[in-house]
Design a protein that fits this description.
Elements (H helix, E strand, L loop, with lengths): L6 E6 L1 H23 L2 E5 L6 H9 L1 E2 H6 L16 E2 L6 E5 L1 E3 L9 H8 L21 H18 L13 E4 L15 H4 L6 E6 L6 E6 L1 H5 L3 E5 L3 H11 L17 E7 L2
Parallel strand pairs: 1-11, 2-5, 2-7, 7-10, 10-11
Antiparallel strand pairs: 3-4, 6-9, 8-9
């Protein structure tokens, strides 16, 4: 069954959308573990996901899942009486949707942001973290290397589509005020039209910050089981609603249409 039409839009305070989004991710994580034994999560960079990652590190109250009518499948002896629901980190593998071509200790590093807000609060096996090697001198080689890393992992788990694209369980995306998502920008037509490669290097002199980046391509994002946009601010909220209602369909974020998955939008109130 094609579920591309399954789109959901949620608006609330920063606290409300953060708790709701985290609860949804935790619910989908256990659903994936029950279904095929592991959860593959693609992280976003930028500033918006910081509160979301801190919430995922803390977990959410069981009542939060009940409040948002989210299922919580039990797995591996999870105690149904626990008040705080944590991610099944031991069965979660982490990837990135994009990365700035900077060292990992650089303030613009998406990996560094995740380290400070998420990994530093938890014990996650290094073998479960697949960061983009964006500090390499040759960014095109870095893109090829990351694609091969994804391919090797997902082939082991038999998670390739019939079109030979990876099937991630959930991809978190941000939204720029110009409509970009991941590092897919409107002025880079070649990247937006990419049909074969999974990861590409781009140079975006007008981005914030400007410079070279690595990014997943649209076909990879659109083969995910779930895509979750998480963004804050009134201007982004207005743009998100327009994209959701397909009024800005030609923007990069508007081109995100999972072929057989669900799309969730979380934005702050107007």
């Amino acid at each position: 069954m094609n579920t591309a039409a399954q789109k959901f839009f949620y608006r609330g305070s920063e606290k409300e959308i953060t708790e709701h989004a985290a609860a949804l991710i935790i619910s989908e994580a256990y659903r994936a573990v029950n279904d095929h034994g592991r959860f593959s999560l693609v992280l976003a960079g930028g500033n918006s996901p910081r509160s979301l990652y801190r919430q995922l590190a803390r977990g959410v109250a069981r009542n939060t899942l009940k409040h948002y009518q989210l299922q919580f499948p039990m797995h591996d002896g999870t105690n149904s009486k626990e008040e705080i629901m944590l991610m099944p980190w031991e069965k979660t593998w982490l990837f990135w949707g994009d990365e700035r071509c900077v060292p990992v200790n650089h303030p613009d590093s998406n990996y560094g942001m995740a380290m400070g807000t998420l990994f530093s609060q938890l014990h996650i096996d290094d073998e479960h973290i697949f960061r983009m090697p964006a500090e390499k001198d040759d960014e095109n080689e870095a893109a090829r290397e990351y694609e091969e890393t994804i391919r090797t992992f997902l082939m082991t788990w038999n998670s390739l589509s019939t079109k030979n694209f990876p099937i991630f369980d959930l991809v978190i995306l941000g939204l720029g005020e110009d409509g970009h998502t991941a590092s897919l920008f409107a002025d880079n037509i070649k990247t937006l039209q990419e049909k074969k490669r999974w990861v590409v290097a781009v140079n975006e002199p007008h981005a914030n910050p400007p410079g070279k980046r690595l990014t997943l391509t649209l076909p990879v994002i659109n083969h995910a089981r779930n895509v979750l946009f998480f963004t804050m601010g009134k201007e982004k909220a207005k743009l998100a609603e327009k994209i959701f209602h397909e009024e800005k369909k030609t923007l990069p974020a508007g081109l995100v249409e999972p072929l057989n998955g669900k799309t969730f939008w979380f934005t702050t109130q107007l």
